[in-house]
Amino acid sequence: MVHLSCSDFLPSFLLLRLTLLILLVSSKTKGLVKLPADVSVPAVFVFGDSVVDTGNNNNRTTSFARSNFPPYGRDFQGGIPTGRFSNGKVPSDLIVEELGIKELLPAYLKPNLQSSDLITGVCFASGGSGYDPLTSILESSMPLTGQVDLLKEYIGKLKELVGENRAKFILANSLFVVVAGSSDISNTYRTRSLLYDLPAYTDLLVNSASNFLTEINELGARRIAVFSAPPIGCLPFQRTVGGGIERRCAERPNNLAQLFNTKLSKEVDSLNRNFPNSRNVFINVYDPLLDIITNYQKYGYRVGDTGCCGTGRIEVAILCNSFDSSCPNVQDYVFWDSFHPTESVYKRLINPILQKYLYQFK
């Protein structure tokens, strides 16, 4: 007797799609956030800078903005540095985990990226990138225009995997997350300030952000979360270079961030008028993060003005390396290095943010 399997009846491309569907269902995690009625999020796509980069800069050997070496990843799975700018997970991972999609959001440029990962989302972000085109040049990182090019490439691959109709459904119902502006304000404005005052520079950033958001809307994105700039002046590095002897929060970066956020919020609202079928949502992270930094003891932290790595005052990226000692208990710290919060802080931010804003994507 000849025993036939389903593969004897199904064309190879249908069998591939069936296999991917099985992998997709089996790989889901238990979500912690309750989605609004009639809302499903099949995938997450992330763009931006080092706050959300999950390893796309690993092979950019000329870039300062890399973190695929110890002590980065100290508290990640197996203590392995993966290119995430933290001691553990970053917001990209926590978003997909909270939504019950999967545990980690892989970098699109990850060498061994699986086809099943394409269906449930990837990260296009590049550490050191920003809305200002000059930022990625100074940091040797991938600009937002390059990240859009990767999205276009990704869409082609997705259509091959699941077909054009399903690909359109995934793009229209997935969450697109944009996190940028920190590198522009913290690093690039020092160069731009010779030609731009604060209002002019924030206009440059918002115009660039608008062009980027318009393009991904035109490519099929319908749910776009645009994160505000954080309180840049309160990062340990900015306290060191602009906070005086007492290392207070530096005023100019915070003023720049606040002005930028006000203009970006208005621009995001205007995009919804241009794209009535989309939900572009401005996400305020400035205030909740500032509250944690300012009232760190209320949240159970012992140190709010320096990072865990090295002295915690200037070390970030390649300056935070295995030659530097790191703090014995990272749970005491708001910041991992002089620029990026710890995984613990990200966890405190992401769940409330999702709870607060998800209903706006209905």
Automatic annotation (TrEMBL):
**What Gene3D superfamilies does this protein's entry cite?**
SGNH hydrolase
Record InterPro entries: GDSL, GDSL_lipolytic_enzyme, Lipase_GDSL_AS, SGNH_hydro_sf, SGNH_plant_lipase-like
- Family annotation (PROSITE patterns): LIPASE_GDSL_SER
Lineage of producing organism: Eukaryota, Viridiplantae, Streptophyta, Embryophyta, Tracheophyta
Keywords for this protein: Signal
Q: What is this protein called?
A: GDSL esterase/lipase EXL3
Gene Ontology biological process terms from the UniProt entry: lipid metabolic process
A GO cellular component term found in this entry reads: extracellular region
What is an example of a GO molecular function annotated in this UniProt entry? lipase activity
According to the record, the signal peptide region is 1-29
Please provide an example of a Pfam family that matches this protein in its UniProt record: Lipase_GDSL
Q: Which family does it belong to?
A: Belongs to the 'GDSL' lipolytic enzyme family.
